[in-house]
Design goal:
The chain is mainly alpha-helical. It has helices spanning 19-34, 46-49, 56-72, 90-99, 104-108, 111-119, 126-141, 154-171, 217-225, 242-255, 259-265, 271-297, 300-329, and strands spanning 5-11, 38-44, 81-84, 146-148, 179-181. Helices cover 55% and strands 7% of the residues. The strands form two sheets. Strands 1-2-3 form a three-stranded parallel sheet. It has a two-stranded parallel sheet with strand order 4-5. The structure holds adenosine-5'-tetraphosphate. The site of adenosine-5'-tetraphosphate has 20 residues, from helix 1.
Length: 333
């Protein structure tokens, strides 16, 4: 029997991933792939993305770009299952079943639903409301033990666990109860212009707030140079200094240094030089990823092949669980 831990996570193709997505999630995805003890499954969660209106042609392109970016970041489609959620009908099937084991009151408490409802007041659809149930289905379908996520997804993961525990209490040991996996730093990257709010793909309040993984080096540097700082002149992480704290944690997530070490390194530096050095560290981190992404974007046949083969593998991997769940609830399967 395979005793490896199953790791599952996904990202929405709602825009180009940013530094928050990278430091909060994607960077950890790659390191988990490298662990001998893990089987990794990472999905482009296109079904989640239509909870907000999408332009079909743009969505198709963004899905492809996101999948190529996964590979550019170091995910190896031979080792890791990388696929589109909509290629595997079992996600939707399990989601429907789990909807019937999730209470309205639970979904009503979800802060992401409240935030997104405010932002998309003209389109508060049922999919947006039951988004966490589809996320639970994604995770439970593959028997995932660990789910690498940023801090903003914590509430959804807790609901996923509650649904799984409830289902198991009725039908026996069907689902693995998953745990969240957080990196040491970068679990909540804030906007560079609004350090009180998380950096978010679909929320570009101002251009400079978000650093895209594909921003050119000069653009990255200029965004960091213009990043909002706080009063005083000391480079120290503290709740009174949200701008500096955010920049320090980005720097540490990229360089692997501890906050204490970075504070020592920057003691005596001015804000200007500090911001430039953070920007330069980010540029160096992104450089090889951007080069690989460019090469992959030019290799259409390779990406098509990954999409086809991994889609088939994902359907195969999902089959056992969906059959089991259908039988448990009394369906023919
Ligand atoms: N600012 C962030 N800091 C750290 N981690 C973050 N994540 C998102 N923003 C930050 C993590 O990225 C993963 C993928 O997220 P998603 O695409 O499923 O959707 P999201 O969490 O809603 O991300 P965005 O960027 O805010 O997208 P939109 O604007 O479309 O909703 C998740 O693991 C998340 O925790």
């Amino acid at each position: 029997m395979d005793s490896k831990k199953i790791i599952f996570s996904g990202m929405q193709p709602t825009g180009l991933p940013h530094l928050g997505n990278y430091l909060g999630a994607l960077k950890n995805w790659v390191s988990l792939q490298e662990s001998e003890e893990c089987n990794t499954i990472y999905c482009v969660v296109d079904m989640h993305s239509i909870t907000v209106r999408q332009n079909p042609a743009e969505l198709r392109k963004r899905c492809r770009d996101l999948l190529a970016l996964y590979i550019a970041l170091g995910l190896d489609p031979e080792k890791t299952l990388i696929y589109y959620q909509s290629q595997v009908p079992a996600h939707a099937e399990l989601s429907w079943i789990l909807n019937c084991y999730t209470y309205m009151g639970e979904l009503n408490r979800m802060t992401q639903f409240k935030e997104k409802s405010l932002k998309h007041a003209d389109n508060i659809n049922a999919g947006l409301f039951s988004y966490p149930v589809l996320m639970a289905a994604d995770i439970l379908l593959y028997g995932a033990h660990l789910v690498p996520i940023g801090d903003d997804q914590k509430q959804h993961l807790e609901l996923c666990r509650d649904i799984a525990i409830r289902f198991n209490s009725i039908y026996g040991d069907v689902f693995v109860i998953p745990d969240a996996y957080y990196g040491k730093t970068g679990t909540r990257v804030m906007g560079l212009q609004e350090p009180s709010k998380k950096m978010s793909k679909s929320e570009m309040a101002s251009e400079g707030n978000l650093v895209s993984l594909l921003d050119k080096p000069e653009v990255v540097l200029s965004k960091f140079k213009k990043a909002v700082t706080d009063s005083g002149s000391e480079i120290k992480a503290s709740p009174e200094k949200p701008g500096i704290t955010n920049l320090l944690s980005i720097y540490c997530a990229v360089t692997g240094k501890s906050i204490e070490q970075a504070e020592v390194d920057f003691s005596g530096s001015g804000y200007g030089s500090f911001k430039t050095q953070v920007g330069e560290a980010v540029v160096e981190e992104l450089r090889p990823i951007q080069k690989k992404f460019k090469d992959l974007s030019e290799d259409k046949a390779y990406i098509d092949d990954v999409i086809r083969k991994n889609g088939e593998r994902a359907n195969e991997a999902a089959r056992k669980m969906i059959v089991k769940v259908k039988r448990k609830v009394g369906f023919f399967a």
